[in-house]
Design brief:
Length: 130
């Protein structure tokens, strides 16, 4: 009986080491993409608790450039994504819908592609986002 209990405990420990837990990372990439699942909460920070955004600059998928400072004064949704990211594919339509419903009120959406070549990024956004 003791050997059975030790064996079952060892199996449970081994299997739990293969799981990703509540804050999931991609187990197939060794956690390398550092995806963390959201918990569905919305957090609103009081104006006094808000800190200025850091400098964010980069090239756009169409070959232009972007500087976060260019949208200072607007509400900005900054979304990190990649073409190979399954949750990113699922959320793209929702983000686009919110973008379309809020753009007239000055909300700006900025997507930051993570680890894609430009062609893969362009293919991902084509027909998905404006």
């Amino acid at each position: 009986m003791r050997r059975l209990l030790v064996g079952v405990t060892a199996i449970v420990l081994l299997l739990s080491g293969c799981s990703t837990g509540r804050d999931a990372t991609d187990p197939n990439a060794g956690g390398g993409n550092r995806f963390v699942a959201g918990d569905g909460r919305t957090v609103v920070y009081a104006r006094a608790d808000r800190k200025p955004a850091p400098a964010v600059q980069g090239s756009t998928v169409d070959g232009g450039s972007f500087d976060l400072a260019s949208v200072r004064g607007h509400v900005v949704v900054l979304n990190f994504w990649a073409s190979w990211c399954a949750p990113c594919r699922l959320e793209a339509a929702d983000l686009e819908a919110v973008h379309l419903s809020t753009k007239d009120s000055g909300v700006r959406f900025v997507g930051v592609d993570s680890r894609d070549e430009r062609d893969a990024a362009k293919a991902f956004v084509a027909g998905r986002v404006t």
